[in-house]
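Quick check before the chapter quiz. The format below is the same one you will see on the exam, so make sure you can read both the input and the output lines.
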Amino acid sequence: MRKFQRPEVGEYAPYAIMYIDLVPDDGLVLQHLSENLQMVKDLVAGQPEEKLVTPCAEGEWTIKQILSHVTDTERVFAYRALRFARNDTTTLAGYEQDDYVANSNANERSIEDILEELTAVRMASIALFKSFDDVVLTRSGLSNGHNLSVRSALYQIAGHELHHFYSIKENYF
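Here is the expected output.
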């Protein structure tokens, strides 16, 4: 499988290192995306509905909301990567994740539907990043006030999911 070089400091917002550092430093980030998806599915499969729609604490998201958030964030970062990959230099705004979650209706959806959507988005992301050559992967632009390279978006997608996977394991199980 193709290897993707880890992004360097300056290719991402300072906060993003917390996600990038979660991704193994072996360049096999697309393989990790596939494996991460299966880990998430295995973790939530067969869980009672009550567990999936109950936050771990007041003001926290439910498991269904977290998975919807992971899907939304992956879409946003893939879109940013596509724009910059195509040499679109338009500065991109951030997004308010809490508003997205509040309007996701995740708790009213079945877990099967949420996982089906996450799977579709993941397959599209993998296909998108596979289409980029090494030159394209280093292209970048401004997003939410910070530089973002195409390869950094890829690593942030993978690390962001791992962050939430570990959080679910620690706080909900």
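If your answer matched, good. The chain has one domain: 14-172.
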